[in-house]
Write a structure and sequence with these properties.
alpha/beta, nine-stranded mixed sheet, 28% strand, single chain, 203 residues, 28% helix
C-alpha cells in the first residue's frame, strides 16, 4: 500500500477539545499521517488551519464552515445558575468582588475576542481577571476554585461537572460560534478528504 501522506493541521488553543475528533479522522483515513500544531497564527506550512470565527483580517484562501458552537458562562457547581446571566457575568468580568475569581483567555484568543465584543461590549475587563491558556485549563481551574466563573465553548464543556448557562449578546441572542477550516486554496486530495471527515464528526 502507498505510504501515508503527512498532513499538517494547525488549530487554535480554543479548539483543544477537538483533538479527539482529529485523531478519530486520522484513524479512519490510513492515507493520512496527521501532524498537529497549536497556534494562534498557523505556520505557513500548515495544510489546514482550524479556528472559531472571527477570521483574522489577513485571511486569504478558502474558508470551509465545519460546524457551530455556543459560548457558555461556566462556574463552580456551587454557584446558582441564575447568577450566570450575561449582565452578572459582565459585572463579574469588569469588577470581580472577592471571593469571586473571573477567568478569561489571552488577547489573541478568538473566544476572548467574541466575549469582549459581544458580552463586554465596550466595558473594560478587570485587571484582576486571571488568564487560562485554553478552555480545558479553564474548566479544570473552575472545578478547583469554589467561586470561579469563566466561559467556554459548549463542545469543550461536555463531561465536566460545572454550572453553565448560554452567554447572550446585547440583544439577548445566544452567542453562536462558527468553527471554520482555512486552506490555501479550495480543498483537494487528502486535504479535502480530511476536511470532509471533520465536517462529518462535528456537531
Amino acid at each position: 500500500p502507498p505510504s501515508p501522506q503527512p498532513l499538517l493541521v494547525s488549530r487554535t488553543p480554543a479548539l483543544a477539545w477537538l483533538d479527539e475528533k482529529l485523531n478519530l479522522c486520522a484513524s479512519l483515513l490510513p492515507q493520512v499521517a496527521l501532524l498537529l500544531e497549536e497556534n494562534y497564527t498557523p505556520s505557513p506550512q500548515a495544510d489546514i488551519a482550524l479556528r472559531y470565527a472571527p477570521l483574522p483580517e489577513s485571511t486569504t484562501g478558502s474558508v470551509t464552515l465545519l460546524g457551530g458552537d455556543t459560548l457558555l458562562a461556566v462556574a463552580h457547581p456551587s454557584i446558582p445558575v441564575g447568577d450566570l446571566e450575561s449582565v452578572d457575568v459582565r459585572l463579574l468580568a469588569t469588577s470581580p468582588q472577592p471571593p469571586h475569581t473571573f477567568y478569561t483567555y489571552p488577547a489573541a484568543d478568538e473566544l476572548r475576542q467574541n466575549f469582549d465584543a459581544f458580552v463586554l461590549a465596550g466595558w473594560r475587563l478587570s485587571p484582576n481577571a486571571r488568564l487560562a491558556p485554553n478552555p480545558i485549563a479553564m474548566l479544570q481551574a473552575i472545578r478547583a476554585g469554589e467561586v470561579a466563573v469563566g466561559y467556554v465553548p459548549q463542545n469543550a464543556a461536555t463531561g465536566y461537572e460545572v454550572a453553565s448557562a448560554p452567554l447572550t449578546d446585547a440583544a439577548g441572542a445566544p452567542l453562536h460560534l462558527d468553527i471554520v477550516a482555512l486552506t490555501a486554496q479550495e480543498p483537494e486530495g487528502i486535504v479535502r478528504v480530511f476536511v470532509a471527515c471533520l465536517d462529518g464528526v462535528l456537531p
